[in-house]
Every structure is written in structure tokens, then in C-alpha cells.
Design goal:
It is built from 4 helices and 11 strands, in the order αββααββββββββαβ. By secondary structure, it is α+β, with helices and mostly antiparallel strands.
Length: 215
């Protein structure tokens, strides 16, 4: 997502003014998310389905200049090229999704079933990440975060997580991170964040974590 934003802005830095008159160094984009953990009939977990709703400022910028038949509305077909660019840009960042089964790293195949919709003036990106090797772990951890903290993720207030087709014994918890304060962001400064890349993994401390246990 950082790639598409930087490309769209001709590699200039975005600064969003806050009510106090200060500008946050990071993050630049805010995402409210809902997540589904997908299970097969045999009880194995097969993937993660995301629905990420972007903030209104990013949504307005991303849709600027897109062709539309109806003013103020976009169809899925009209948004399809933008959805493709989003998904392709996310690959560099491992789709901001990191999983472990029983403490061991679990890998994903490429995303499927991806599309964008537009409602109430904001964009929502939908996509599914299938696990390379579906399994029946006793503990599944899924972290969602941007290693560079360019994008800030937060669980939706209502129904942020669902288990689709899971055995009745499986339970989940959603763990929220502490947020970076405006003061901390200003103290670190934009130069600090510009040095971060996916290998630094600095944003892991702001991960939203889903923990699924299946006794």
C-alpha cells in the first residue's frame, strides 16, 4: 500500500494536518479491518480473508480521476484496475499479514478473490490469502501490521473477527496494540521512518493479533 501511495503522489511525502495544527510524521494511512479465518470441512485452517476499509482522505485521493458512470459511486468493475494495483503493491510487504502455527512460521500463497468496493465515500479492499499448507494447529497466530508503520491498522469496533467453518471447540481472541502518540511520532521524525524497510520490522510492535486456539 505504501508503494501505491508514493507512486500516486509522485514520491512526495503526505502530511495530514491534525486539529492541533501539528502534522503527524507517521502513519499516513489508516485502515479499519475485519478478518475471517477460513476452515475446511476436516477442521484444517485454509486461509485468511481480509476486508480493509481505508480512511476517507486516502479513499478520496485514490479515486480521484477514476472514470465513473454515476457521480459519487463506483462499481466493482470500475475499481478493478485500482484493486489490481493495490494487490500487486502489497506483495512487497507480504500483504501485511504474518502467521504462525504452533509457533512455526506459516506461509501464504498469492491472494485470491480480491476486489474493491466503495460505500459511504470510503474504499474497502477485500482479498483472501490461502495458506500454502493447510493444517490443524492447536494455536494459530495471525498478526496484521505494516513493518514501516506507514499504514496504521485497527480492528473494526463491531465483529472484527470471524471463524468461518471452524470446529465448535475453536475459540479466538483479538489483541490490540498500543498506539504511537502524536508526541512520539513527532519526536522520531519523518527521517527516522523514511529509513525503515520491510527488513527492519519496526512496525511489529503495533501488530493487531488474532489468536485462534483449537484444543
Amino acid at each position: 500500500m505504501r508503494s501505491i501511495i508514493l507512486t500516486s503522489l509522485a514520491a512526495t511525502t503526505m502530511w495530514f494536518a491534525q486539529p492541533s495544527g501539528l502534522a503527524w510524521a507517521h502513519p499516513h494511512v489508516w485502515v479499519t479491518m475485519k478478518n475471517e479465518l477460513l476452515f475446511a470441512p476436516d477442521g484444517s485452517v485454509t486461509g485468511v480473508r481480509h476486508a480493509w476499509t481505508f480512511d476517507d482522505m486516502f479513499s478520496a485521493f485514490a479515486t480521484q480521476g477514476l472514470e465513473q458512470k454515476t457521480k459519487g459511486a463506483f462499481t466493482r468493475d470500475e475499481l478493478a484496475p485500482l484493486a489490481k494495483v493495490n494487490i500487486e503493491s502489497l506483495k512487497e510487504f507480504a500483504y501485511f499479514t504474518f502467521a504462525k502455527m504452533n509457533g512455526q512460521t506459516a506461509k501464504f500463497n498469492g491472494p485470491t478473490d480480491y476486489w474493491l468496493d466503495y460505500k459511504d465515500s470510503v474504499l474497502t479492499l477485500h482479498f483472501t490469502l490461502p495458506f500454502t499448507a493447510p493444517a490443524k494447529p492447536k494455536v494459530l497466530d495471525v498478526d496484521v501490521y505494516d513493518p514501516t508503520y506507514f499504514v496504521d491498522f485497527a480492528f473494526a469496533k463491531k465483529d472484527p473477527v470471524a471463524l468461518a467453518g471452524a470446529p465448535v471447540s475453536c475459540k479466538f481472541t483479538a489483541q490490540k496494540p498500543n498506539d504511537l502518540s502524536a508526541g512520539q511520532s513527532q519526536q522520531l521524525g519523518e527521517a527516522f521512518f523514511n529509513k525503515l524497510d520491510t527488513m527492519s520490522n519496526w512496525g511489529a510492535q503495533f501488530a493487531n493479533r488474532l489468536v485462534v486456539t483449537c484444543p
